[in-house]
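Changelog-adjacent note: as of this version, every example in the card shows the full chain rather than a window. The one below runs 213 residues end to end.
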Amino acid sequence: MNRTALTMMMVLVGLTGTGRVSAQDVLIDDPSIDATASAASATPIADFIATEAATLALDGQGPRPVAIEYSDAHELRAKIHKYASWATLPLMAAEFALGEKLYNEANSETDNLRGVHGAVGAGLIGLFGVNSVTGLWNLLESNQAPGHTKRLVHGIIMLAAEGGLVASAASAPGHSRNQLVAIDSNKATHRDIAFVSIGVGTAGYLLMLLTKN
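Full-length structure tokens:
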């Protein structure tokens, strides 16, 4: 007889019986139940039901989560990563706007905005580099923590975006005389790589932002 059936039987006995009920009034074939202790109790059925309910509640619980302690260096890297991430978002928007303006304007090779565009791009790549170092370091240190797979996917996406930004900077027109000859083609290539890189980076940020919990 399993414990659930035994519990139901004892409830029925308690409801239909008259007078005081003792442990001997119920046939118990479960060796885990101490009949002597039940007989000594004034309410053996109630005591048994309470014990069974507590046992079933414990059996239904999964393994308790293991507490994970992070080092002070881990916490510091996490703060740097967070602040650098927030600083990266406006830079990506500014780089996008500057790039579009330069692409659509004539004589953009000599435009004053070109220097600003290059400086913002360099800053953007630098922040991506900071996030790569701090993020990968903490990813390795917390490989047993919950959410490791999500952070790993996020890291791969952001590394791909960083590589794309570097490739976009390398493909910018005007680096050599040969590129000046085919400036329109180089501008298109530069813009396309930049668009894809910014889009991939944005997706990586949204992954962590929208699935924070």
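Structural remarks: The radius of gyration is 34 Å.
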